[in-house]
Amino acid sequence: MEINDRHFMNTPPMKTVRFGGNVAETLVKHRQGDLQDYELLKHQLSDPDIKDAQIVNWLQEFRKCVTQLSKEHEQLIYTVLRLPWVGRSQAVVEEYMCFLSNLVSAQTVYLCAALKSVVAHFTPRRVTISEGGVDFIDSDDEEENLPRNFDQCHVALQVIARYVPSTSCFLMPILRVNFPFMQRSARTLECYVHNLLRVSVYFPALRRDTLELVIENLLKLDVSASRSDIEEAEANAEAQQAGGPVEEALFDMDEDEDKPPLSSVLTMAHPVAERLDTVMGVMMAYIKDVCHVNGVLHTERTKELYRDLLSIFDKLILPTHACAHVQYLVFYLCSFRLALAEAFLDHLWKVLESPSQPDVLRQAAAGYMGSFLARAKFVPVATVRACLDLLLSWIHRYIDAQDVSGKQTFCDITLHGPFYSICQAVFYVLVFRHRAILAADMRKGLEYLRSLNLERVVMCQLNPLKVCLPTVASMFAAVTRKYQVVFCYTIIERNNRLQLPVVRSSAGGDGGATNTNPLDCFFPFDTYLLKRSGPLIEPLYQPWEELADMEMLATKSAPQQQGSREDEDDFLSGETPKGDGIMGATPSSLDAHLCSPSSVGSPPTSFHRTF
């Protein structure tokens, strides 16, 4: 319900049972030093069993003497603001909003207190639960009237903003302080984030700060639930459902057993991943709703949201190592239009090629660019080729600069980190997208691959195959050997016989490494593991496809490389390829998501080159 359509009551006080005088008389006695009725008034307002009629009666009396409520009545005002008005009768809700409007307009010193009292209702109310003789406090996640209660809170905030135009300046710190701890339930986090995003709709000036606050806390969840931890938790959960240990579950092929309910199938076994999955679903629903009006993509609103997310990406996501899922918010937004994807790639390229940027950010940008090109189905071959041209041109200029310097060049990750990251990004993209490059016209595709002069790259003194992730190098060698673009196995075999030099890890300290990957890199768009929000990403995502027999034969016949496989991509483990069909869906509306977090069903978004 809109503010302008609301009717605020202005009726005489109702008859109720009470003790002491009215509010005006009590305030007069308080000024005279008589505190008995004053304390009695606070006690009655704090009664947990207070009735609706009593609340309305008190609020109407407070409205009449609101100008007398100075700073010395702070505790009394806090008690009034904590009255249980949310979810009460319409008379209570309207009278409370009238009181808020009168209070903040007459006594602006209480603006922050009024805002805090409203924001406190952005999550389900806390209840005491007894288990095993132990009492503990948790949120009432099953409360049925949450959507109505949240609507009342947002109307109240807009009422305050009508009388105090600077409300938004004071609201953001309060929203930040009240953000729930990460240990709170998934439902609590979902409700609070949902309400934060609703605030950004009627306070558009707060949108970037609101999104930054949400993503900042999402990153805390993300880095607390690594891919390996999530996969291990899921494997253990599947084993428990099968009724045996993990090892026995691997051989449990009984398909006739009853399937578990959908809710349990969509629940993440890892508790932190479950919270992350829930909030990611809310965020994707919000992105879809902001960018679409009546099912049609709104160009200007989409551009504005893209700028906000890109700013947050630079500030928070790009510098965060090993986050596994939050970056998919940008991935999802870029899927709406090809122009957005190309703008994102262009932005990454500018970070990557800029000497003024720290090497760690340049290397991260190379990882994002390579992973995005390899994994985003909505990025066409023409864009992939254009980006490869940029990357290879940079690589060749870098090699030229090393040759011209006249100095002897060594494989040194501390000096040439961005070079090795860009080389690995190129190899990674070619492993994933070589079929698409060759599909339209094999002859022209081969001519293009040979024009990249990859042989010079792999044979230069900087020796990128020695530093890149071993399995990326191996797969790249298999692909280029099949199409006779470049032969890498001699170099790989020679590298295997040599020990890598001492390098400095980004974690600090020096250490020797033998046939390991010293780039400390990761592939930002590895497989999306979250179950509820995963169907929104799946149709946009290019899974790893097994190499053809000839390519696999070349890989198996190549010298085997040793080393840790902890950071390898899913294709390194031979993931079963998924179908190419578009089967997923875009999220439902934000409000529908609050009531049914798993509900999805819109058709996939089509992609267009220009706005």
Rg for CA atoms: 30 Å
Q: Percent of residues in helical segments?
A: 55-70%
Spans where pLDDT lies below 50 across 5 or more residues: 1-10, 246-257, 502-518, 553-570, 572-589, 594-611
Total helical elements: 28
Number of strand segments: 8
Largest sheet: number of strands, sense, barrel closure: 2 strands, antiparallel
If you average the pLDDT, what whole number results?
81
Walk across the major sheet and give the strand order. Answer: 1-2
Q: Into which percentage range does the β-strand content fall?
A: under 5%
General description of the model:
- With 611 residues, the protein is mainly α.
- Helices cover 57% and strands 4% of the residues.
- It is built from 28 helices and eight strands.
- The chain has helices spanning 23-31, 36-45, 52-64, 74-81, 90-106, 111-119, 146-163, 167-177, 186-202, 207-224, 227-241, 246-249, 262-265, 271-291, 299-317, 328-334, 338-353, 359-375, 381-405, 413-439, 442-451, 454-459, 464-467, 470-482, 489-497, 534-537, 549-557, 590-595; strands spanning 126-131, 134-139, 292-293, 296-297, 503-504, 510-511, 586-587, 600-602.
- A two-stranded antiparallel sheet has the order 1-2. A two-stranded antiparallel sheet has the order 3-4.
- Helix 3 (52-64) runs parallel beside helix 5 (90-106) and helix 18 (359-375) packs parallel to helix 20 (413-439).
- The longest helix has 27 residues, at 413-439.
- The chain is elongated, with a radius of gyration of 30 Å.
- Mean pLDDT is 81; it is low at 1-10, 246-257, 502-518, 553-570, 572-589 and 594-611.
